Amino acid sequence: MENLKDRRRGEVTPSISSERAIMTPKVHLLFLPLLFTVATGEGLQDKKGPFENTALDVPEATPVPYPIHQFELKHTVTEFRLSGEGSDDVKMSVDGWLFLQHPLNWARNDHYIIGVEALDGSTVVEGPIYVTINVLDINNHAPVFNSSEYTAVVLENSPAGVPFTRVFASDLDDPASPNARLKYSLVNQIPNKHHTAMFQINADTGAISTTPEGAQLLKAREGIQYSRGEDQSLEALKTKFDHFCSPLQNIPYEQNPFFSCVERAEIRRRTINPLEDPDYTLIVRVQDLGGESENALTGSAYVNVIVKQNLWVNPGPVTIKEHLKKSYPLSIAKVESNDANALYRLVQKERSALNFPFSISVDGDIQLTQELDREDKDGYILVVFAEDQYGNQLDPPMEIPGDRGGREDNEPQCELEENVFEIQEDELVGTKTHNDNSYKA
Ligand SMILES: [Ca+2]
Ligand SMILES: [Ca+2]
């Protein structure tokens, strides 16, 4: 930032600083016009005008003294009297030059109105006039994130492009100008296995979501799976261990390196401190000037991401043919809440007076309760809720979309059909899920 400022100063006054340092205020005023010409290299004629109400644009943070405008007076003037807010920052020389004594700051005030009277001795000979100084913003503030470190949790299988967290930065420059037009970007992802970007950031909003790869590949740390109401104590872990690691040897659990390894991993997983041990750390950057200039000022922050196991996965499309001769109820799909004690509820999305031949078991088994007949209805949309005993949702309702007929009118598209939970005609042929697990009837 300092470099930019220095460079900007250089543009305006390439050689003023040493001269300014040795000058007394009196000499300083005497040589102002000459000094200004040297300093700015611009035609000062352009800055002249009659002694009348005038509006002037002045960039903020200019080096001083900065010549603003020379007023041409009709009378002999011995001094000027200035009034109003900001009048301490400007001065008039006896030859009518209005100049800045102190650099202006847009963030403090974007304009000043200063009254000026011309005096001969103690008599006002001209004025008062009112000079409006409009402060022009320059890009002298870098954008800053509202936190240097963020923490976020992302569920496995989070859909690509749907934000799971957001970062935010602000910039003290003029929000109506490019100086505060911010762009976010993702600089780095740690770890960056196989150079696959798992996350993306919306350049305009700072919203962070998974990429299609992330939606597919992000996995929570492995842990023990517990079923509904199952004891999750370390004693229960011993029982599980016996179950998976028989035949048993006569070794105490505590001395069994395999058991103690699993035990440590399980305890660590339960007491994980995301800040100290995130699954991913993202480095995000914000740039002003719309991110389109190499002169843009930047800010950065860390985003710690914890990947959380997500069991609540849409089982995907099911195709069932009508008049299927099976014993009912027939399992056709299974869902599992992230809360082992969830109560499941299954409804039909579109209210219908007709029979709804589906049910869901306490374990999340979606069952067909009778043969389907396309004459009755050619498609269903099922909505599954996972709730606690008070009816509060534990996972977002899962909508399993269905084809409501009319397929003959639509051009068949395999990709689309794979996303459709379709229950119709003749026979249950199986279900496909978007995580490639398959269900066989
Ligand atoms: Ca800025
Ligand atoms: Ca500024």
Automatic annotation (TrEMBL):
Key words, A-Z: Calcium, Membrane, Repeat, Signal, Transmembrane, Transmembrane helix
Segments of skewed composition (Basic and acidic residues): 401-410
GO biological process entries: adherens junction organization; calcium-dependent cell-cell adhesion via plasma membrane cell adhesion molecules; cell migration; cell morphogenesis; cell-cell adhesion mediated by cadherin; cell-cell junction assembly; homophilic cell adhesion via plasma membrane adhesion molecules
GO MF: beta-catenin binding; cadherin binding; calcium ion binding
Disordered as annotated region, ranges: 393-412
Annotated Cadherin domain residues: 57-145, 146-211, 318-414
Record's bilayer topology term: Single-pass membrane protein
Annotated InterPro entries: Cadherin, Cadherin-like_dom, Cadherin-like_sf
Pfam families for this protein: Cadherin (PF00028)
SMART domains: CA
Principal location class: membrane
Compartments, as annotated in UniProt: Membrane
The keyword Transmembrane belongs to this UniProt entry's keyword annotation: yes
Gene Ontology terms: cellular component: adherens junction; catenin complex
PANTHER family reported in the protein's UniProt record: CADHERIN DOMAIN-CONTAINING PROTEIN, CADHERIN-23
Name listed for the protein in its UniProt record: Cadherin domain-containing protein
Organism annotation: Knipowitschia caucasica (Caucasian dwarf goby)
